[in-house]
């Protein structure tokens, strides 16, 4: 599972989302929208907005920190690993 999280440094929801990812041992790549013009261009192209946190998980975009959706994806990933 490839996870990219788009963040702003002073966004409390971004901080909570990163904390959740670490707690659940999900590897991720963080793209700081305040620090990178390329990251801003990417998120605007994919979602037409600068909302953080935004997750890109295996090409699927999730705007906002929705713990239930993330729990679902992590559970599916763990189930897939068990079957291999």
Structural description of this entry:
This protein starts with a strand and ends with a helix. It has helices at 12-23, 37-47, 67-83; strands at 3-7, 29-32, 54-57, 60-63. The mean pLDDT is 90. Strands 2-1-3-4 form a 4-stranded mixed β-sheet, sandwiched between helices. The chain has a single domain, classed as Glutaredoxin (3-Layer(aba) Sandwich). With 84 residues, it is of the alpha+beta class.
Highlighted features:
84 residues; alpha+beta; Glutaredoxin; 4-stranded mixed beta sheet; 3 helices; globular
Count of DSSP strands = 4
Spatial shape: globular
Give the helix tally: 3
Straight-line N-to-C gap: 14 Å
CATH homology-level superfamily: Glutaredoxin
Roughly how many Å is the radius of gyration?
Answer: 13 Å
Q: Tell me the count of domains.
A: 1
Q: State the CATH architecture.
A: 3-Layer(aba) Sandwich
Helix content: 40-55%
């Amino acid at each position: 599972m490839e996870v990219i999280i788009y963040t702003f440094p002073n966004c409390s929801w971004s901080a909570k989302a990163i904390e959740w990812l670490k707690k659940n041992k999900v590897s991720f790549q963080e793209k700081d929208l305040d620090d990178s013009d390329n990251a801003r261009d990417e998120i605007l192209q994919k979602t037409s907005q600068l909302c953080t946190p935004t997750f890109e998980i295996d090409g699927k975009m999730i705007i906002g920190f929705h713990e239930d959706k993330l729990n679902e994806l992590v559970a599916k990933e763990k189930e897939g690993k068990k079957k291999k």
